[in-house]
Amino acid sequence: MTIAINAAFDGGNIEVVGIDGDRVDLTIRPDAQSDFFQWFSFRVAGAGGRTLTFRILNAGGSAYPFGWPGYKTRASTDRQAWRQVPTNYADGVLSWQVTVDSDLIWFAYFAPYTMEMHEALVARTALSPAAEHRQIGTSLDGQAIDYFRFGSGAKQLWFYARQHPGESMAEWWMDGALEWLTSDAASDLLAKATVHVVPNMNPDGTRRGHLRTNAVGVNLNREWHAPTSARSPEVLCVRDMMDATGVDFAIDVHGDEAIPANFIAGFEGIPSWTDAHGDKFYEFGRRLAAHTPDFQIEKGYEKASPGNANLSMSTNQLAERFGAVSVTLEMPFKDHDPNADAEFGWSPERSRKLAVACLEVAAGMVDEL
Fold first, then answer.
1. Of the residues 330, 343, 349, 368, which is catalytic?
2. What is this structure's pTM?
3. Which residues catalyse the reaction (predicted)?
4. Segment (H or E) for 242
């Protein structure tokens, strides 16, 4: 039987170069009007009983080729469990070989969280009496920007995710966060804080199978200084809502291609930086590392030098604009090596659990924010 490769579905991305027997040569399609690419998601039909080799020929030209060494492709036959596949990167080509037992198998850069899954998440969250739902804007493709409000306390906490749509672990994090916020476990936090949640900032990129940009190739996390309705309405409507509520604490949820660990990045280098302000950010990291083995504070990004923070990025903009304790949370496409899982690597379920840990720590220090 001839195998068939297909990515014409919600969040799909791959292009077939050629199929030669049991070898499949592929390329990743760049984001629209952009040079960014790294996200892939596709299915293979007619593969049962065969040992196939897949090669992504343009991996070396991707946005973050330094992320491929040590990376393992995710594979699933039921689209529920996504297991790691031994993967090789050499001479700019990403390759893996699998023996397929079923007629259908799916491969992805990370376990997908599609727009259909997003709609289901929004629907079940909106049914909770704890949640107030609003559509606060639309994307350039006309998709809804969904927003939830919980609680009525004085502190204003914001959680938003998936500015970069290929970082699907970010919405798995949101899945866990929203489940916790609609449970009795959140009652103490919601007595002291009003919690604002945007589970997906970039629905167009999500549906289109982009790595990093929206429908017109704009990186939303470089728009926070001056968002516009023509380029970045997704950021504009969220920032306008933040201006209306204020922000005391925020987490912008992401995924990182290269570092095999969960970590946070802060707002060092903003013009208004003070050590007292920054200490609250560092204390959040210390408490989170003590709270769960799936977080650490040793690995992470280099800190911006004084006065050199990029204010087009949301974490820096919110810290400067509101005096917020503003956090970028990064989860790995690889694994959290300090607490590794050989079968699944970093996974949807671990992303969901990390969300709960983050919220529990935020609840414990809300009076200090």
1. 330
2. 0.98
3. 330
4. helix 233-245
